[in-house]
Amino acid sequence: METRALLVSTACAASLAIGALDAVLALASEPHGAASLRSLLLPATLVVGAALLLITPTLWVVLRRAPGELRPALAISLGVGAVVLFGLLWVAELNRFSMWTGEPLAALFRVVPVAAAAALTAVGAYATARSRGFDPARVARIMAALALLVSIVLGIQSVLWLVPAFDGTTSLAVSAAMVLLGGAGLFLVARASIAWLAGPMALAVVALLVAGAVEPLPRSAPQTEFPGGEPTLARIVLITVDTLRDDAIAGPRGEGAATPNIGSLAAEGLRFTNAFSPAPWTIPAFVSLMTGVSADLHRVNHDFAEIPESLETLAEVLSAAGYRTAGIGHHPQLLRMGRGFQHFDFTPVRLPYHEKMTGGRVLRRLLERNYGTDDIPEAVDHWLASNGSEPFLLWVHFLDPHFPYTAPARFLPDDPLIDRLGADSGDIRSSEVRMGRRVRGADEQRWMRLLYDAEVRWVDDAIGRVLRSLEEYQLYDDALIILVSDHGEEFWEHGAWEHGHSLYDEVVRVPFIVRLPGAEKRGVIETPVSTSAIGETIAELAGVEAFSGQESSASLVPLWTDEAASRNPLYLTGTEYFERLEGVVFDGLKYVQSTTSDAEELYDLVADPGETRSLIGDRPGEAARGRELLEGREPLRRAPAASDAEGPLLDRVVEEALRELGYVE
User: Fold this and answer.
1) 424 in the Ramachandran plot: left (φ > 0), alpha (ψ -120 to 50) or beta?
2) Could you count the other beta carbons within 10 Å of the beta carbon of residue 609?
3) Is the dihedral of CA 462, 464, 469, 475 positive or negative?
4) Quick one: residue 209, left, alpha or beta (phi over 0 = left, psi -120 to 50 = alpha)?
């Protein structure tokens, strides 16, 4: 019985200590050192369980064969050695080099010193235990006490992590109560019979395993019955393509890439040839698209942001009206845009565990998935198979043709530059291009555009697969299908590259196609429009009242039903890099001003579509009108609440994805 109690207590103590060390080191390595209990529990469970499976058989073999007087010292040495070995391996990984990668001989040289240090520590623990002459029952009680102490410490940390903030008095009271509780627990352990304690200790570890393995089932928003039967607009498909410039696709304006699927959709619907995104990068553009509020009013303009709680979203409106709502796509910047979607399947997936823990890293390798352009149509098809018979809003987002440009070989052109400079831009950092350290010559710039156009063709092919799925499930003909981009991409037309830094047309003018059910309206609409009007347009077509109390952009339905539809000014803002710019499009002109300097620009978009010559000094009346329009928006502008504007910390998966796209250096 003493051997069994010694085995159980030592294995539990060492395993729980390893789990605690894993959590503490993971939190210490995170800049802000905070996590919820839920994020720690699953990886801690994996680590504790693995440690138990490894330590228990080893202890059993050793303790069964060892003489009785050696068992306590051996148990202590093996337990201490296992904890120290784990800690050393973890710290080695923390210092950003893997113990196991590289040439086998180099890996061996890294592992041997760590193992030797752990072995020496175990020998020291053995010698100390032998000199103290512990008996097995006493060692078992000590091990059990240590295991309970670790559990209490983890419990204290979990309580503190679960509560966002304590005031000084509450924090002191909670800490004192925890200390008293821990002391009482240790006192009871010291006086308890080890035979009585071994069983509960094992059950406690099993309970931890079960609690960590069980995840709550996902909850869907309740379905609401449509009043009066089925809605007149039962199928709504919103396809968004990241970084797609208006002239990058074949059509009446551009000499773009061959895009037969987008072209066929445009031929069956309405193509807006003067569509503007309210902002030149993803976050502010999508907040506007989902809420109808222009970017100069919602003012959300930071990485990984969420939609302010004060604003109602299109998905919330349609979900409340009875539609099934789903979002499927790929973009780390959009992971917090899922409010109102009952099914939100965006990658990279933010799995509910701490990514820096050892168990978290293992789970990430086992469970992580990451949609690419070729994977999204399959996910869409799977969702349609189960949900296509019900009224729905389906949002499908493609990250490509966002940098890095890495289209499959079948979409690359037969061009000598591809052979000479490479088939993708994967080894180039966006910051290096932005600063002028890479891609300096005309050939390199043309090569980048060739790669970009290849990705446009790749996305067009994927969009074709989505449209064919709609046809296969007999949903295409009666569906409202909208295709739009969040922003474009500059290729040195104004001396720079990428997006987020300017309000020139190559960045803010985007493709925008509306295919009505039954393709009842077709043609080209040249009236300037904003993509922030998409929400109100969908709501009107669905017969649903939306965005009450919000300064949302007006529906575009009058543009194809009423020839006298008004042409309102379109407001632009939300630059991410360099100067903060504000702009307005009105009467065929674009006025842009810097809010951090006196710089102003004025362009005639009809006579000078390339925005090559500013008229700010030649047409003072129009410039004054632009200033007046921007100043007139001030009463409508409201800064989001701090809780809305500041998002949570990035987990490692999202941070790495953002770094790959150039958002994080």
Assistant:
1) beta
2) 13
3) positive
4) alpha
